[in-house]
Specification:
431 residues; Growth Hormone, Chain: A; 21 helices; 79% helix; 0% strand
């Protein structure tokens, strides 16, 4: 064995030893928790318009197609930013990028609150999309630095859970706040919290440790010379592209139904008040918050990724299909299917653990961002498509339960396709 090879193996062993020691204790949970709290915040701001949809249509004289387009501007900004975010995080780390992103997200909420025209409303959504684009991938990146690989699926599920708790806060609790204080005041408050998150991230989340940078350098020398080497490797990996498509399709209960159209469907199809519908939709997100960590834990414990994704996707498809029958179901049963739909949709979080495991340290954030790019692209396409189907099937500006049911067929079909695609996904080598 040559001296160069011996030196390389010694350096790699030492770096891994230091990593194992650093990834113990309570501090990694603090670092990740603050980063994940930004994801909670941005998810709240993302779905907030779902409880304001009727008011926004009236205040800005928009129909469902127009509202869907304006809200989808968030995804127009968010989705392409993922290709930049992943490369930037792999190159520069999370501390400064996440702190700056929180300020931009808060500024987007402020612009939304101040809007007097649909153009400014859309600008606020674009700014929110740009700032938010760093949130999930940044939290996942912090986790890949500070946690061992054997915990990845569980941490991904926990990250998704915090995000959906933000979405839950953006349902019934926000509905109450909007009714009491108005939607503009609610968005002003959200803007202030963006500044608070920026300060918190700056003072708590550390820079990348030297041992992590050493591991990345030892794994792939090219990554230190070519900033976009990781992006190239990710894009050319057929399994990662397949994974991204699966992730997009398994997430539609949240990205399309939960984020915009679910409240209106529940209230119209069951006859309950807007506030009660918002509480019901909160259950969808709480289900996801429970399912993500639990299914991730099962995936880690039994060393399998594909099986829980396949089973979760199949059961989610069935539950989403049952929601088509909401007009004929008792309200409690509709809520039950909302919880179950969210719970089994939590299997989608495992896709990000697979993305991390498919790639080396120098491009893990890029891999997660690439998958997330597809997920957000799904929201951009499906939200306005759902609105267009509503307008196509309705004879007036008032949508019936039947109109919503026709458009809703799109979602279980998408879930079924995503589930079937799991058949061709390979288990990561170390799982």
């Amino acid at each position: 064995m040559s001296k160069i090879k011996q030196s390389f193996e010694h350096d790699l062993v030492m770096a891994k030893k230091i990593a194992r020691e650093a990834r113990t204790g309570f501090m990694p949970w603090i670092f990740w928790g603050v980063a994940a709290a930004f994801y909670l915040y941005e998810f709240f701001a993302r779905v907030a318009p779902s409880v304001m949809s009727d008011t926004l249509e009236q205040d800005f004289n928009m129909n469902a197609t127009e509202l869907g387009f304006v809200m989808s501007l968030y995804y127009i900004a968010y989705a392409p930013m993922q290709l930049v975010v992943g490369v930037a995080l792999d190159r520069f780390g999370s501390k400064k990028l996440l702190s700056g992103a929180a300020i931009i997200a808060g500024a987007g909420c402020l612009a939304f609150a101040l809007a007097e025209t649909t153009a400014i409303l859309g600008l606020g959504r674009i700014m929110l999309g740009i700032g938010s684009s760093f949130a999930y991938v940044g939290a996942v990146y912090v986790a890949t630095v500070w946690f061992p690989r054997r915990r990845l699926a569980f941490i991904m599920g926990m990250t998704a859970a915090l995000g959906t708790l933000g979405a839950a806060l953006g349902q019934a609790p926000l509905e109450v706040a909007v009714q009491d204080y108005g939607w503009r005041t609610a968005m002003y408050t959200a803007a202030i919290f963006g500044l608070v998150m920026s300060i918190l991230i700056w003072f708590v989340v550390p820079k990348r440790p030297g041992w992590f940078l050493k591991l990345a350098e030892l794994e792939n020398k090219e990554s230190t010379k070519n900033m976009f080497a990781g992006l190239r490797d990710v894009v050319l990996n057929k399994q990662t592209v397949l994974l991204a498509c699966i992730s997009l399709l398994l997430y539609v209960p949240i990205s399309t139904f939960g984020a915009l159209w679910g409240d209106a469907y529940v209230s119209t199809s069951t006859g309950v008040s807007d506030q009660t519908a918002a509480w019901a939709m909160t259950m969808l997100f709480l289900g996801f918050a429970a399912g993500g960590p639990l299914l991730g834990w099962i995936s880690d414990k039994y060393n399998t990724r594909r099986l829980p994704m396949f089973l979760g996707g199949g059961l989610c498809t069935c539950c989403m299909a049952m929601l088509l029958l909401a007009p004929a179901l008792p309200f409690w049963l509709t809520v039950t299917f909302l919880i179950l739909t969210g719970f089994f949709a939590g299997a989608q979080a495992i896709t990000f653990a697979v993305a991390v495991e498919q790639h080396a340290n120098y491009c893990k954030a890029t891999a997660v961002a690439f998958v997330n790019f597809f997920v957000m692209l799904g929201g951009f396409i499906l939200q306005p498509l759902f609105g267009a189907l509503l307008d196509l099937t309705s004879d007036s500006d008032v949508y019936t339960a039947g109109d919503y049911q026709t458009a809703l067929v799109l979602l279980p079909i998408s879930l079924a396709i995503g589930t079937i695609l799991c058949r061709w996904l390979k288990e990561p080598e170390a799982v």
